[in-house]
Xyloglucan endotransglucosylase/hydrolase (Asparagus officinalis), 294 residues
Amino acid sequence: MGTMSVSSVLIVFFFANLLRLVLGSVVSTGNFNKDFFVTWSPNHVYTSPDGHYRTLKLDQASGSSFASNEMFLFGRIDLQIKLIPNYSAGTVLAVYLTSEQPNRDEIDFEFLGNVTGQPYILQTNVYADGFDNREERIYLWFDPTKDFHTYSILWNLHQIVFMVDQVPIRVYRNHANKGAGFPRWQPMALKASLWNGDSWATRGGKDKVDWSKGPFIASLRNYKIDACVWKGNPRFCRAGSSKNWWNMPRFSSLNWTQRRLFRWVRKHHVIYDYCKDPERFQGKLPVECSLPKY
Ligand SMILES: *[C@@H]1O[C@H](CO)[C@@H](O)[C@H](O)[C@H]1NC(C)=O
Ligand SMILES: *[C@@H]1O[C@H](CO)[C@@H](O)[C@H](O)[C@H]1NC(C)=O
Ligand SMILES: *[C@@H]1O[C@H](CO)[C@@H](O)[C@H](O)[C@H]1NC(C)=O
C-alpha cells in the first residue's frame, strides 16, 4: 500500500470518528474498565486483563455493581451473560438502563435465581415517568447457567424490544399519544448489579439465599453499546440519521421473522404478564394493556 492510500485511509478514519463525536453516537470499546466504573464493592468485581470479561460476586459481606460512564438516549445494547450455577435462590442479577431521576425511567432485565435444578426466571420491567408495575416474567428455553447467552435491548422512539439470543421476548410500544408512559426524554445509564433479593425473588421469598453455597458469581462478557451519547440535546438522539441507525423506520416495529419468534415466546414461555393481572390494578389495567402489543 502506497503512502497516499495509507494517509487517505487515516483521513477517512479521522473524519468518520469526528462525525461520530459530533453526532454523539457511540460504539463501545468492549473493555469494561474503559466504559464503566464500579459503584459497589470493587473487591467483589473481577475483570479479565483484556477487560472483555467481568464477574460480579455476592457473598455474606456484600453484593456488587457497576455503571456506565456515559448516559444514553436510544440505541441498542447487547451483553452476554452466564448466570450463577447450581444454587442461586434469593439472588438477583439486574442489568438495566436507568435515568436515576425522581420521575425515573428504567428498562430492566432481572434474573431471579433458584434452588439447584430449578429454573431461573427472567423478569423484565419498564418504568416511565416514575411509574413501574409493568413486570413480565418468562422461563428461558435453555439453562442460562451452563453457557453464555446474549441479552439485548433495542430502544427507540417507537418501541423497546427485549431480546434473548436475538429472539424478541418482550415488546413495549410507544403509545404515549394514547396516554401510556414511554421513556423518551431522559437519558439513561447502563448498570449491572448482583444482590440479595431473597425477601421476594424466589417463589415469592420462600427460598432464601444459602450463604453456605456461596460465593455467588455471575459472568458477563462481550457487551456492545451502540447508542446515542447524551450531550444535553435530545434532538441529536431523536434524529433518524444513519449513525443513529436504531431510529430508522425498519426498526420501528418487529419484522416478520421476529413476530413469529415473539408469538412463540408469548405462547410457550411467559409465566406472568402484568396486563393479565387486573386484581393488582383494582380492575383498571394500565392503558397500554388494551393497545397493540407489537
Ligand atoms: C455444580 O454442581 C455440580 C453437580 O452437583 C458440580 O459438579 C459442580 O462443581 C458445581 N459447580 C459449582 C460452580 O459449584
Ligand atoms: C423456582 O422453581 C420453582 C419450582 O419449580 C418455580 O415455581 C419458580 O418459578 C422458580 N423460579 C423462581 C425465581 O422462583
Ligand atoms: C428481521 O430482523 C432481524 C433483527 O434485526 C434480522 O436479523 C433479520 O434479518 C430480519 N429478517 C427479515 C426477514 O427482515
